[in-house]
């Protein structure tokens, strides 16, 4: 089983959006028996809470299930449990390095580094623009799925 973990600051906007969207992509490609998807936060502010209403609304708009999404913290042991740990911005990456104790490890990737955009995904908690976040997360998730299929010899 290939394990993918999406990480953002609070695990209520960007990372649960990426988790739900990536799960949907994996399911549509009939890879859900090969790829497990989760998300986590680098902070403890929203632990145990559902995603932000803006995230839930955008997922509903695009007919993507939000079932099972709940905020949880990133823990050191996640480094060993997941094959790909995906941060949404440079600050998330720095925090992932700190929490896991694995700075600059190749399994820790900023999502849009897999695209031509190569930039941070803005946090819609602050910008209010969940549509922009969805568009960027979608592009990053498509690139990530291609990368995983290529690296893990999965048909896509």
From TrEMBL:
Signal sequence region: none
Sample GO molecular function, one term: protein tyrosine phosphatase activity
- What SUPFAM superfamilies does the record point to? Phosphotyrosine protein phosphatases I (SSF52788)
User: Which Pfam families does this one have?
Assistant: LMWPc
**Record domain Phosphotyrosine protein phosphatase I: where:** 2-147
Question: According to its UniProt record, which residues of this chain constitute the active site?
Answer: 8, 14, 123
Q: Does the keyword Hydrolase apply?
A: yes
Q: Does the keyword Glycoprotein apply?
A: no
Keywords from UniProt, A to Z, are:
Hydrolase, Protein phosphatase
* InterPro entries, sorted: LMW_PTPase (IPR050438), Ptyr_pPase (IPR023485), Ptyr_pPase_sf (IPR036196), Tyr_phospatase_low_mol_wt (IPR017867)
Reaction(s) this enzyme catalyzes, per UniProt = O-phospho-L-tyrosyl-[protein] + H2O = L-tyrosyl-[protein] + phosphate
* The protein's Enzyme Commission number: 3.1.3.48
Please give the superkingdom of this protein's source.
Bacteria
Record-stated family = Belongs to the low molecular weight phosphotyrosine protein phosphatase family.
What name does UniProt use for this protein? protein-tyrosine-phosphatase
Q: Which species expresses this protein natively?
A: Heyndrickxia shackletonii
